[in-house]
Amino acid sequence: MNIELLSRPGNAAARVVLAPGENLTSESGAMIAMSDTLALTTTTHKRESGSLFAAAKRLLAGESLFLNHFTATSANGEVFLAATLPGDMLRYDLRGENLIVQSGSFVACESSVNVNFGWQGFKSFFSGESVFWLQLSGTGPVIISSFGAIYPIEVDGEYIVDTGHIVAFQETLNFTVTKAGGSWMTAILGGEGLVCRFSGRGTVWCQSHNASSFGHELGPELKPR
Amino acid sequence: MQIHISRAGSSEGPFPVEQVRQMLASGELKPTDHVFHEGLTNWVMASQSPALATPGGPPPLPAAAAAPAGSGLLTAGYSTDARREFDYTVEGRPDFAFLTVQVPANQTLKVEASAMATMDTNMEMKTKMRGGLARLLTGESIFVNEFTAANAPGSIGIAPGAPGDLEHVYLDGDTIFLQSSGFVASGMGVTLDSKWQGLKGFFTGEGLFLIKCSGKGDLWFNTYGAMFCVNVSGSYVVDTGHIVAFTDGLQYEVGRIGGYKSLFFSGEGFVCRFRGQGKVWIQTRKLGAFASWVWPFRPVERSN
Fold it and tell me: Looking at the domain B87-290, which fold is it?
């Protein structure tokens, strides 16, 4: 599998070349172009897993549960992938560790990587939002996108990141979701809302812009629906 | 021999071979920047130019720029046409491309209506309706303005509506189909004609019209987001909203990929399948998808 990131950092796209027998799993809707020789199948989260009931539950929770699987059968084939919002892309190679990825930032991974939709780490704090988190585990390359630029932060000790700016982080980190200020009043008035306090050692990838903030700035400029 | 160079999205030159060699040696020009000169049919990387090859061999390519181990069938990348009718520069690629064209005295350039940003005072504008009535239906701007450099050469700066990339091709009797909002500018020898896509595009809800560009001369077109070009040989699938342009001779049809489950749940919906030999230009972002993303943030109208 050969991954090439194009037109970074403003409107990045990924070109993935698959050799016969190689498989790529992508977020539904990420494909912009592909060789017709590739076979495409669509599944609810991981192939051959998850009951219909669990899938329906996630659908109701507003979580997209469809993944596309691209397979090169007889010949090499290529697929181009991109996100909706302007921004950069990152390739990360999993080597047995766990990576937690914000659902909107997940683009694709080698199909050997396990995509777990049921990760509960932040659940109680984010139940009201459409943001959910994917747990990626196993071995293989992963492609992640960001809204704006993407930058890594090596945490050694403690570090605070606004939840809207988290793209992905290594699960070796401990984390608690908390309010930014000393009280709920300052948290709400300060506009920072919820932040994630990381501790331990590991990497957090952040995006320079918060998609939700951009949406809330843009929305009032438009006619009511 | 004179050598044209292309870097950071704009073309410069021509320069004498020795000067380009010095630019390479000093690092001013990268081995991965493109050059064009006599004896070549298309732009090549400076490291691969026979005219610039030194006895010690070409400068080594950085590993990141080396071609990926692709199928050999398919190639992608920016294509830049060295043939030109007008001198021009493109700045700000690939995210905010801006076109500046030098128009010789008493020559005329067609420009998408409202795309003119700056110009010399001797540039005279005339508004023309191009492509007949059908273009009224495209929902895009109906008018193409004609800018003539009256009595003296003039320069015109052209900014496409959407932030994105810009491509130039030189038509020499060949034909290119453009997605309806893709036209930026062209020489007077290029004929613009709206083409009803008919039922082929019936289900897509987007790009029902294509602009057929044919004739002889320069053609510039733009994208929302960055752009890349795929040389199609065989069959290739492109999401309908990501098509910018394609060369004549490619057959195309709107259809689905995968099984029926993919049709409804893959998030791809209908795609365009190109067959034959030719080029397809593809944009890395889709304006419609961005608009859909913004939609939920719109305020809800109060009933009272």
Answer: Double-stranded beta-helix (3.60.160)
The pLDDT tens digits of the residues spanning A104-138 come to 899 999 999 988 876 766 654 544 444 678 889 99
Contact A225 B225 (CB under 8 A): no
Strand residue runs (E) in A61-138 = 66-72, 77-82, 89-95, 99-102, 106-110, 114-116, 133-137
B225, B237, B259: residue with CB nearest A41: B259
Contact B74 A35 (CB under 8 A): yes
pLDDT of residue B157: 94
Is-contact A170 A198, C-beta < 8 A? no
Q: Considering the entire predicted model, what is its pTM?
A: 0.76
Mutation target for A interface from B75, B298, B304: give the one with most A CBs within 10 A. B298
Q: Which two tokens stand for residue B253?
A: 């049809």
Q: How many CB pairs under 8 A join A and B?
A: 161
Phi-psi region of B98 (alpha: psi -120 to 50; beta: other; left: phi over 0): beta
* Pairwise CB contact (< 8 Å): B301 & A225: yes
Of B235, B284, B295, the CB nearest to A36: B235
The answer to whether the beta carbons of residues B190 and B214 sit under 8 Å apart is yes
Instruction: Give the class (CATH, top level) of A2-221.
Output: alpha beta
pLDDT, tens digit, 9 for 90 and up, residues A11-20: 999 999 999 9
A148, pLDDT greater than 60: yes
Exposed, middle or buried: residue B154 (CB in 10 Å: 0-12, 13-18, 19+)? buried
Banded pLDDT at A48 (limits 50, 70, 90): very low
Q: Which fold does the domain B2-60 belong to in CATH?
A: Dna Ligase; domain 1 (3.30.1490)
Lay out the sheet containing A23-27: strands in order across: A38-44, A66-72, A23-27, A106-110, A139-145, A89-95
A65-79, A177-191, B103-117, B185-199, range with greatest mean pLDDT: B103-117
